[in-house]
Amino acid sequence: MDEASDYRCWDELIPDALALIFRNLSLQEILTVIPRVCKSWGRAVSGPYCWQEIDIEEWSKSRQPHHLDRMLRMLITRSCGSLRKLSVTGISNNSIFSFLVEHAGSLENLQVPRSEISDSIVEQIAGKLSTITFLDVSYCNKIGAQALETIGKHCKLLLVLYRNMELSSSADQFPLDDEARAIAATMPKLKHLEIAYHRLSGKESVLKILSSCPELEFVNLTGCWNVKLDSNFLKEKFPKVRVLGLIY
């Protein structure tokens, strides 16, 4: 047997296969080390193959807004419209959010907690998020019921919504029942809902969600102190739903 056959030609692997391997590396290694190995690896990380799923949530937590902005624009551009998942925290302005949506027509999973996005920008771009099935807008204090209603009207495939809040956030200073009503009115296909630490005035808005979203399997009501639900009632009326929170 030819001695050369004992060696694998890693540089001849197709880009899709290389992308699967590179997912096990850190962001820094993919961007700075891999391109120096050989030309084929450099082409793989410069093209869309490695950027169909972008998870920089941990990296973004310790970065300045302008660094995060530059990184997002570079990676989203490299995805060439094939981006399916983005996980990042702390988007600091509407412009980068708008850029994301303009260049991500195949997006299915969008996680942007603690981002400074507004109701107005959500209204402008929600029509281009029609493929979204998973959305995390937790701790985004500049959006409210208006944005959620717009999302629900345009994102008909939405199955998972994270809209958790923090006790220390400014949104805790006023009731958020209008957000719960917006969810109930526009998101009938939800299967998983997290609205922990929402300042709800009572159980009525939660019951409206449970009644209007027949496919729900899980609801997180942790910290919704004014919502008191009877466990026997839930088992009788909504047997498919597991509710985490204040159950009596």
TrEMBL record:
InterPro entries: F-box_dom (IPR001810), LRR_dom_sf (IPR032675). It comes from Hevea brasiliensis. Transmembrane segments: none annotated. Pfam families: F-box (PF00646). Residues 10-52 form the F-box domain. This is F-box domain-containing protein.
